[in-house]
Each structure stands twice: as structure tokens, then as C-alpha cells.
Amino acid sequence: MTEIASGSPAEPSSQAGRRPEAIKAIPVRHPWRWLSAVLVVAVAADAVYTLVTAPNMHWGVVGTFLFQRLIREGILLTLELTVLAMGIGILLGVILAVMRLSPNPVVSWLSWFYIWFFRGTPVLVQIFFWFNLALVLPHIGVGIPGGPPLWGVSTNVLITPLMAAVFGLGFNEAAYMAEIVRAGIISVEHGQTEAAQALGMTRLQVMQRIVLPQAMKVILPPTGNETISMLKTTSLAFVATVPELFTRAQQIASFNFYVIELLVVISIWYLVMTSVLTIGQYYLERYFGRGSQRELPPTPLQRFRRMLFTFRGQPR
Amino acid sequence: MVKAEAVHKSFGRLEVLRGIDLEVQPKEVMCVIGPSGSGKSTFLRCINHLEKIDSGRLSVDGELVGYRQRGDKLYELPDREVCRKRSEIGMVFQHFNLFPHMTALENLIEAPIRVKGASRSTAVEYARALLDRVGLAEKASAYPNQLSGGQQQRVAIARALAMNPKLMLFDEPTSALDPELVGEVLDVMRRLAGDGMTMIVVTHEMGFAREVGDTLVFMDGGVIVESGKPREVLANPQQERTRAFLSKVL
After folding, report:
1. Which among B90, B102, B111 is the nearest to A201, CB-wise?
2. Which residue of A has its CA nearest to B114?
3. Would you call A192 an interface residue with chain B, using a CB distance cutoff of 8 Å?
4. Is residue A5 one of the residues assigned to a domain?
């Protein structure tokens, strides 16, 4: 230190190898951060206190029903609905996006029409529509138009309440996913397509092997968003009498009248499930970000630990 | 190997190629120079049908690019045929265009496996040999962004070679590189030429053109202004336009 301060000239040969000691500066203080933290904690504590001590709130009921069998079954069905609807949504969405960008005008317009229709009507209406389809079409079959049916089945057998909800949620989701996937595809630099074409790869191969994997980086964050949104939207399956989490809570509350308590129970579960999804999404994004950063970003746990020790934001 | 007769190409109302005539013999190295916007890159891209020509005839190895002639009628080739023909022509781009989500080795084996149907083990073996040939054997498992520009371009050359092309097209392969990295890429290309590869190189490297090129073509305004032996064209240009260009770049 003193050496540097006095500016004593070092010999040129030794200068390259000499390294001054690491900087130890006093960091800038952040009083507002501390003040805001105190304020937020105070307000939050007050809100929690108010809710916990609400005169007619029966926390015992919440505890009883949190792990009750009907609720557990509801959770499973909610997860099942989410997986099925998102499965349909993602698969159909990718197909629609690729169709939309196809040079074949028929295919491209078909995709446009699908998105226009399914994005343009409320998902609640769509679920109701599938649920009540039997009213106008008692039988569904496949056959040559004008000819005899080759295969047919009663609509009520084919479209169970669960299927009505899955179709309604999934087909609607596909329209949104198609636009997300399309945005991802467009975001991939055109030189990638050219390089792959120059190697002799077909349009489909280029899409599958080169463009879509790179588009994932752009597609994933909004898809995670959609999945979380879907998890909660499954509660609309209520109208198709599917006994998922929300329906179960309603059914139980209609017997014991603990409406708010049961809403607290299912809210806890919805929060738990979306939290798990958020973590899963983060690691998926990390995986598909490979090759785009020299070093993988820290995991949330690593980041949290660092935050805790420094109480400073992460430099981006 | 490559034959162009009165090739024209327009983008909308802009006429980029206005009648290109040239012929490239097998094992010939042709260097194409000229100011930007002269149509050099567009012509190169026409050769593997990344761009469609509007009129004239363009053929590779005696077969028309993108079309089939029967009688006096031209038929557009189906996608499958276009892909097959492209797979026989290697192309190297100014900005490398390596696939960033794949390692160097994966970049090399992708097309041989998917397009040619090679087995994975054969493709890997050949890819390793090629990486060794461009001096990057130890970088097989590196992702493109972990490589310098010069290394990336050498991987890109190896990727094109992995398809065993009969013709290599280079579109300003060193223009995006730091000056000190240009040499390593040119070395690889020089060796490739020495091995008898037919090459068309769009470049600004006059030294490379003089040393390695068999023919030098100077393009401007969508036409070939002058062509000949590189040494002669560079030392003693016949056209006023060529003289003006060379006086600026040499």
C-alpha cells in the first residue's frame, strides 16, 4: 500500500509479475433499503395478524381439511388436468406455429383460422361447449361425407366431463402456445436456417434440429407462465362437474359452510403447486440456455445465500 | 464444375446480377473480389440455390441448379432434390453460423447423420479426423461461444467438409475476424486448395487470391468486369474500374 502511495518506481522487469493487493473499499450504504424492509415487514405482520385473529376464522378447520382425502384427490385431478391440457396445448401449439410459417398457403391459413377462433372465444364457453355437445350431436362418427358411418360412438361416452375440460382447456391453450412458439421460431437468426439448408437438411429437419432447440430459450419463460396460469384455470373445470381441487372445496363448503376456511386450504395448495412449477421452470431454462452463456447462472439457492450475506442486489 | 451463362437476379426492382458468365474447372480455385453490393455474395448463394436466379443458366457438375430440363421446358426441382444437391456443395459463411446449441463435434456430425444417413460412429470418427485437420482436435466438446472467431470459422469449414462436398463456396470467410486470426483460417483454406478441392472464394484478401487462386474475378455492379490469372489482374488490370478498385484496397 505505502509503496503504491509513494509511487516508488519499480523495475520494468518485475512490474509485470507484481500485483497490487485487492481493493478493500467501504461499500456505499443503502439506508432506504433497510427502511423499506422494516416498513414492508411491519405492514405484512399487521395483515397476517388481522387475518389470523379474525373473529370467525376457524383455523382448526383449515388444519383438518388441509390433508383430507377429498382435497388430496382434488389436487391429483388438478395436476392431471394441467398436464393433459398443457400437453395438448404445447403439442398442438408447436404444430400450429410451424403450420403458420409454412409456405403452403392452405396450411398457413388453417392455422390462422384456428388461432382466430380458439383465442377469440372465452375458455369457459369452450369448456361448456364440449360438456354440452351431446345436446346437438348425440353421436360422433367417422365416415365418408354422404356415405354410411364407418365408426361411431355416443358423444356422452367419448366426451366425459374430464375430457370436456381437457379439450376446452387444451384447445384454447394451443392457440396461445402457437403464438409463443412462433415468436420463438422467428427469434432464431436466419443464418442458422441457411447454414442448415446449405448442408442439405430438409425444412422439417432444420425446424426440428436447429431452429426449435434454439427457439426454446425464448419459448420457455412464457410457457412456464402459461403452465402456472393453466394450473389455476383448471378450476374452471368446475362447470363441467370435474371434481378437481376447487370443485371439491365448493362441495365440502356446501355441507359445512366453512367457505373461507376451505378457500384458504386450496389457496395454500395452489401456492405450493405453482411454487414447485416455478422452480422446475428455472432449471429447465438453465438447461436450454447452455451454449449461450459461458458460465451457467447461479441456482436460486446460491443466489439466496449470497443475498442473505450481502443484502445487496445481484449485479446483472 | 460450375458454369454460369447470362445469370440474372433481382431483388424486387433492384437488379443484383446482370448477366454473369463464368466457368470453374474441377480443382480450380476461383477468387471473386469487388466492392460491397457488387453481387458477389448473391452469385455464390445462387450456386447452391439459397437464392433463385431469374434468367440465364447455372449448372453444377453438368446439372442445372434448382431445375430440370426436359425438351425445351424447365421443371422446378422438388425440395428433396434441392436438398440432395446442396448436400454435395459445402458453404462457409462470413459469420460462421455454427449451431450454438451443439458442441463442435455435434456441429460436424449433424448433417452426415441426418442427411446422408451415416452411422454415428462413422460420423464421429470422420469428424474427429476433420477437427484434427483444422488443428482443433482438442476442441471437440467446446461450444461455439467458447471458441475464438478463427477457431469457429475453422470448425465451420470442417462442418462443410464433413459432407464430403465436391465444391466449396466461401462467402467472405475472414471478413468478420480480428486481423490476427485471419491467418489461421487462410492456412486451412490454402491446404484445402492444395488437396485439390474446387473452391469459389469471395474475399477481400488479395494476398490469398494472388497466392492460392487460379483465377481472379473482379465484379462490379452485377457484372464481371475483368477476370484472369490473379497475378496478371492484380499487377496489370486492363479495365479502368478494376484499377480504381485495386488502388483503394491494395
Report:
1. B111
2. A201
3. yes
4. no
User: Nearest CA to CA, how far is A273 from chain B (Å)?
Assistant: 31
- Residue A134 in any domain: the answer is yes
Q: Let me know if residue A175 belongs to a domain.
A: yes
Summarize pLDDT for A264-316 with one digit per residue, the tens.
Answer: 999 999 999 999 999 888 888 887 776 666 556 667 677 777 766 665 554 54
Q: Which residue has the higher pLDDT, A159 or A16?
A: A159
What is the DSSP annotation of chain B? -EEEEEEEEEETTEEEEEEEEEEE-TT-EEEEE--TTSSHHHHHHHHTTSS--SEEEEEETTEESSEEEETTEEEEPPHHHHHHHHTTEEEE-TT----TTS-HHHHHHHHHHHTT---HHHHHHHHHHHHHHTT-GGGTT--GGGS-HHHHHHHHHHHHHTT--SEEEEESTTTTS-HHHHHHHHHHHHHHHHTT--EEEE-S-HHHHHHH-SEEEEEETTEEEEEE-HHHHHHS--SHHHHHHHHHH-
Contacts of A203 in chain B (CB under 8 A): 79
CATH number, domain with residue A265: 1.10.3720.10
Q: What is the mean pLDDT of residues A70-98?
A: 95
Q: Cβ separation of B145 and A292 shorter than 8 Å?
A: yes
Across the interface, whether the CB atoms of A195 and B98 are under 8 A apart is answered yes
User: Who among A202, A205, A210 is closest to B99 (CB)?
Assistant: A210
Domain count, chain A: 1
Residue A214, domain extent: 60-141+152-290
pLDDT tens-digit readout, B166-219: 999 999 999 999 989 999 999 999 999 999 999 999 999 999 999 999 999 999
Picking from B87, B144, B156, the nearest residue to A200 by CB comes out as B87
Domain-located, residue A112: yes
B102-147 residue pLDDT tens = 999 999 999 999 999 999 999 999 999 999 999 999 999 999 999 9
What pTM did the predictor assign? Answer: 0.80
Question: Is A294 an interface residue toward B (CB < 8 Å)?
Answer: yes
